[in-house]
Amino acid sequence: MEKKTIRIAAAVPNVKTADCAYNVEHLIALALKAAAAGAELTVFPANCITGATCGDLLKTSLLLHEADKQLQAFMQATAELAGTFVVSVPCAVTDGTPAVLSVAVSHGAIVAKTASPELNTLVDDVMLIPSSVPEIAGHYHRLRTELTERSGKEHKAIVWCNSGYGESTTDHVYGGGALIMADGKVLAEAKRFEFDEQFITAEVDLDALCAAQAISATPFLPNDQSLDDYCEEILQIQVNALATRLTHIYCKKVIIGISGGLDSTLALLVAVRTFDKLGYDRKGVFGVTMPGFGTTGRTYRNALALMQNLGITMLEIPIREACMQHFKDIDFDPANHDTTYENVQARERTQILMDLSNKENGIVVGTGDLSELALGWCTYNGDHMSMYGVNGSIPKTVMQHIVRHIAHTTNEPTVSATLLDIVDTPISPELVPSADAVTRTDGPEAALTRITQKTEDIVGPYELHDFFLYHFICHQAGPRRLFIMARAVFGGDKGRYTDEEIKKWLRTFFKRFFSQQFKRSCMPDGPMVTEVSLSPRGAWSMPSDVASTLWLRECDEL
After folding, report:
1. Is the Cβ–Cβ distance between 192 and 133 less than 8 Å?
2. Which residues are 101's β-sheet partners?
3. Host H or E run for residue 7
4. Other CB atoms closer than 10 Å to residue 161's CB: what's the count?
């Protein structure tokens, strides 16, 4: 993989206050200089189109209109140039205080804008600070030190560009300073108090910045809160969410499919806590185990033990016979263990749960988690569907800690032992029998003793996928940066994954994340619990038929 670098520039133009046309003429000239120098990102001072010292004139409609007009002129003049240019203009206000809007312009279009003093969404690890700070003896040196230290502490590149010659000196002097720094080092520095326009540029190694960051292998877990407190807080959010839904619809019964796996276990524990908090009888929680072709003795026994020890209503409804009838109805050969074979079982289980909810006047509580939603690892209108989902914002890597937390804090020893065994059970859909499967005729249809269909062997390790998901959603990290970060955390001397393994599962993540959006576009209601939710109702907006070409291409270029 080629080293990822970026050339950054900072330019301090000469200005005439309130003469927007003059100022933009100088901005265009500096933009041409930046493009010629190969700069991919160029930063100008704050309010560089009007000048920063126009005072209350920045409130006037005439100057605001002219600033916008000249911004359009700048965009048109730089439309054919490579790179992105950050300029600042005043914007209309409601409280009488002029506001500064930083605008990122690329190829004649606005690609980002913010009223914040800092702009850090254009390029990962690069922070841009358009500034208009007057000179006070000693201030620049303190600011220089603070920004340099910050760039080192956060392992970022910081570009600071200040207003200069031509600003009003009625009350202040503007020195026109500019700095480009990265990882605690000043890479380029402009001269201050110059009558000539200043232009500096530097090459920033983004790979080195990423590698230097202290990146957690478990970004969904807290670093400023005890794990027990964090798990308890998640449970409280889940319980309050479900309680609110139940009381709102006057419902005192819930139906949950219990597989003996992690997801259904947490959903069941949340339901029981909710019923206890509301003062409802636990018998209103209907746990339904539905053994099928791939159900193992371990998960089957854990499902029964958990339901029995929690004191809920237990139901066992085997699905083998119903599935065989359905295979016959659709003329499908059950010897073919493909997606149809698996999905028939998932949808049969969901049909049972939905129909039971009608019979009992209750609702089906979904068990699917955030990791499965991200990868689309669920059967559309099968385990994908419910009437309320309590786990939809919780990734697998957090779910294990929550169930373990409950196991260690419960005062019911038998429940604790079962929970700990569930946490230690390999994650599996248990939809395909192994070669040594034996059909039992003297009891429940729990034929297998060993789990052979392991989810992580098929779609990849959840610790990697949760890591990719967090940084993709929270930090807009693309494949290249995700690979660099994952290699720093999981590869190299860590020895957990080779570069090729990380690349393989990274491509799997993006391929599945994009292709499976249609399942998330109609996902059930459920609370946002962690920092990430993929709900289409405001948390994550993405077309179901969006092209993944750019992301997969970058994966292939690694």
Report:
1. no
2. 89
3. strand 5-12
4. 31
DSSP state at residue 521: T
Q: Cα 80 to chain center, whole Å? A: 34
Q: Angle of helix 262-278 relative to helix 396-409, nearest 10 degrees?
A: 50
Residues in the chain: 558
What's the predicted TM-score (pTM) here?
0.72
**Dist. CA 426–CA 416, nearest whole Å:** 18
pLDDT number for residue 122: 78
Contacts of 240 (CB under 8 A, 6+ apart): none
CA 299/CA 455 separation, integer angstroms? 15
Task: In whole angstroms, give the CA distance from residue 234 to residue 395.
Answer: 12
Amino acid at residue number 552: L
**325: three-class secondary structure by DSSP:** helix
Residue type (1 letter), 101:
L
DSSP lists the bridge partners of residue 104 as: 86, 112
Bridge pairing between strands 254-257 and 363-366: parallel
pLDDT at 209 (0 to 100): 83
- Would you state the pLDDT for residue 442? 38
CB atoms within 10 A of CB 323: 20
Name the stretches of the chain with pLDDT < 70: 1-3, 93-96, 121, 211, 434-453, 493-494
Q: What is the DSSP letter of 296?
A: B
Give the CA distances from residue 261 to residues 268, 294, 420, in Å, rounded to whole numbers and listed in that order.
Answer: 11, 13, 11
Q: Which residue is listed with tokens 């570009």?
A: 159
Tell me the DSSP string of 106-153: ETTEEEEEESSS-B-SSSTTEEEEEE-PPP-TTHHHHHHHHHHHHHHH
Strand partners, 468: none
Pairing of strands 99-106, 285-289: unpaired
Give the pLDDT score at 440: 42
pLDDT of residue 445: 44
Per-residue confidence (pLDDT) for residue 96, from 0 to 100: 64
pLDDT digits (tens, 9 = 90+) for 213-240: 788 999 999 988 899 999 999 999 999 9
